[in-house]
């Protein structure tokens, strides 16, 4: 069944439709079998919830093909800056799509990464906020490593940390995409660089495929132990979402019909509750991770699930999770 047709099997009434939302994590690309550009993101964020702004996350999209290879990722920022300008025209709805931009620069360049970061800023002076250099690596071939092709323990290398120091100098943020057993590496990095705002994407990637299949309780328990030291590292923030990917092992994409918000809550709530209870709403933000999570559920169902998870919190706490924390962390105007 075609993806759109599959998703349309489940349609829910929008919960709290006026609640302002900043979606701090989505991608844009134009692949041979997958197109997600201004029309597609505008349709998703405009599908009932009050999404007022979004943050773009790097995904190797529209890299430059000419010039030094280390400068190729600047093409992505140039591309997204154009999408942001299209959104700002008002022609694609009320949301400020790509109000902030997180790009890629190879931190293993060490001090040499400074010129790349400066080029990103020049390409988007008002929106560029930082980078993500994904480090997700696993020895098992059933688990696909990050698009950046990281080596094992990349963030502990001298070259990577030299580049990370440049982020510190330039007051730029860093997003982390790792798997759950790599979280101790993040603890080490965040401890070494307390001045860098760090955002852990997708709960730190709890795995549910390959050697982790059928071990959900064991993975959750281990994940709790891994994230525990982060409680005292105030420079680390948490994106609550991105847990419906194929790698997480819930197999939503294999069902005859997509999950309802209640089903999403039942399957994943313990991760959300633990982060909110442990780290507080000022360090947590709900994210869509679209269109990756779109393989598993629709945008309006996902945000209904978030609203059900947070329904017993105070109004200011809800505002923080859906909007205020993301706006503060990414400097969304």
Describe this structure in words.
This protein has helices at residues 3-7, 38-45, 74-88, 113-123, 158-170, 183-192, 216-227, 261-279, 299-309, 315-330; strands at residues 20-26, 29-31, 34-36, 50-57, 96-103, 128-132, 173-176, 198-200, 236-240, 284-286. The protein is α/β, with parallel strands linked by helices and 333 residues long. The protein has one domain: Metal-dependent hydrolases (TIM Barrel). Helix 6 links the parallel strand 7 (173-176) and strand 8 (198-200). The longest helix has 19 residues, at 261-279. The protein is globular and about 50 Å long. The model has no long low-confidence stretch (mean pLDDT 97).
- First-last Cα distance: 40 Å
Shape: globular
Tally of helical segments: 10
Count the beta strands.
10
In N-to-C order, the SSE pattern is HEEEHEHEHEHEHEHEHEHH
* Total number of domains: 1
> Helicity level, as a percent range?
25-40%
Question: Proportion of β residues?
Answer: 5-15%
Order of strands in the sheet with most strands: 1-4-5-6-7-8-9-10
Biggest sheet character = 8 strands, parallel
Report the structural category: alpha/beta
What integer is the average pLDDT?
97
CATH architecture: Alpha-Beta Barrel
The CATH topology label is TIM Barrel
Please give the CATH class.
Alpha Beta
Radius of gyration from CA coordinates: 19 Å
Unreliable parts: none
CATH level-four homologous superfamily name = Metal-dependent hydrolases
